[in-house]
User: Which sequence fits this backbone?
């Protein structure tokens, strides 16, 4: 099977139409992440009959933003912004599918956007067994048109990875058992064949079902931790050693319970397999060790206790960059991405009075109270802001929300 042909060059009218649709999304995203971006007066005004030079300047503005916006920022923004409805996601998809050449970054953005678009349109109560290639292709028809469902043999590897994910009994198995690496390898080895309509359909199905496996395991780990904390309390134990999870060596059980409950809300709206999920995995190991199960934890020698940083945070009062005067909604540590499983208030970044240790900072971000979200103020200044530092660690695996997911009832959902 031959790779797809390059998309035809867009005429000026099409370029201008795309630029006008993307401009408000990109400008808002720039404010959200303090990405340096000057306002474009012609795009602001949505000029009806722009000249060639105006269109070229607008296209250049969009191309520059494509370079600056990282895939994890796009994920986070799409899952928290009210402007990101299916029509806006469709516009982004059409934009990236038309771009040439397609870099790894563009491929990853297309991959995420397709899964996000499908998630927004998929029925709430759909069972995994109903998400076959034909159903996904039908849902993606506004993006890909009619798809020939005769899948090449190499796409069968995705089903093997999904089956391995279904056999995982914990997040630890999923994150460190090699399953995610197999999925990334399949995407990387596809090369230009990734953009075949049937391959895009298969990878969309794969991403959607993988995220569902993640959420089932995440909820299972949280419930296991909470049950373990109850068992420890019944034994009269009030604190446990949680240095392995970047907390203190005498972490109060009552505080751990509060953190787990806040995580239960937070992980409905955001996800990265970076620090928050590793903390969740390590916290489960710490609780099981305290109950006399599992292996002895080995805390990092230089880790500082994070006990002082895990209480629910108040909204930050720090000054914002000129392009982003609104209070920032919190995210998990820098590499996090945000799925919209259920619409719940996002946690707020704690105000920093002193510079915390890296471990403490991660713990604080992961345990911030969702109830402390601030009202959103969004004027549109045209002043450039200082760019936000790039995250120190890229996410290992990202998912976003499945509409209608119920964290309290999903453990009983049919697989």
Assistant:
């Amino acid at each position: 099977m031959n790779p797809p042909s390059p998309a035809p060059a867009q005429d000026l009218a099409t370029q201008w139409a795309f630029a006008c649709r993307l401009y408000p999304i990109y400008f808002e995203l720039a404010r959200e992440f303090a990405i340096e971006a000057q306002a474009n007066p012609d795009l602001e005004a949505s000029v009806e009959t722009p000249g060639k030079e105006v269109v070229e300047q607008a296209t250049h503005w969009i191309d520059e933003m494509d370079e600056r916006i990282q895939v994890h920022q796009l994920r986070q923004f799409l899952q928290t912004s009210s402007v990101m409805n299916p029509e806006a996601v469709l516009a982004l998809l059409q934009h990236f599918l038309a771009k040439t050449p397609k870099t790894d970054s563009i491929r990853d953005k297309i991959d995420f956007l397709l899964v996000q678009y499908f998630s927004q349109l998929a029925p709430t109560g759909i069972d995994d067994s109903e998400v076959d290639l034909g159903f996904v292709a039908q849902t993606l028809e506004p993006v890909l048109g009619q798809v020939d469902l005769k899948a090449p043999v190499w796409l069968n590897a995705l089903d093997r990875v999904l089956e391995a994910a279904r056999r995982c009994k914990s997040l630890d198995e999923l994150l460190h058992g090699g399953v995610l690496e197999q999925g990334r390898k399949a995407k990387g080895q596809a090369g230009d064949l990734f953009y075949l309509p049937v391959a895009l359909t298969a990878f969309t199905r794969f991403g959607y079902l993988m995220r569902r496996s993640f959420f089932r395991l995440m909820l299972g780990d949280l419930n296991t931790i909470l049950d373990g904390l109850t068992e420890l309390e019944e034994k009269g134990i009030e604190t446990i050693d949680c240095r392995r999870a970047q907390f203190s060596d005498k972490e109060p059980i009552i505080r751990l319970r509060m953190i787990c409950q806040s995580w239960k809300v937070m992980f409905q709206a955001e996800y990265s397999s970076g620090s928050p999920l590793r903390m969740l995995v390590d916290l489960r190991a710490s609780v099981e060790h305290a109950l006399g199960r599992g292996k002895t934890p080995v805390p990092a020698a230089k880790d500082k206790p994070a006990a002082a940083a895990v209480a629910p945070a108040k909204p930050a009062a720090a000054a914002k960059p000129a392009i982003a005067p609104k209070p920032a909604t919190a995210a998990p540590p820098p590499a996090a991405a945000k799925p919209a499983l259920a619409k719940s208030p996002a946690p707020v970044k704690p105000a920093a009075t002193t510079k915390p240790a890296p471990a403490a900072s991660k713990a604080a971000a992961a345990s911030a109270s969702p109830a402390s979200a601030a009202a959103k103020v969004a004027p549109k200044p045209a002043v450039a802001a200082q760019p936000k530092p790039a995250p120190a660690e890229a996410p290992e695996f990202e998912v976003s929300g499945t509409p209608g997911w119920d964290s309290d009832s999903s453990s009983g959902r049919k697989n």
User: Anything to note?
Assistant: Residues 5 and 196 are 9 Å apart (CA to CA). The radius of gyration is 22 Å. Confidence is low (pLDDT under 50) at residues 269-274, 299-415. The chain is about 50% helix and 0% strand.
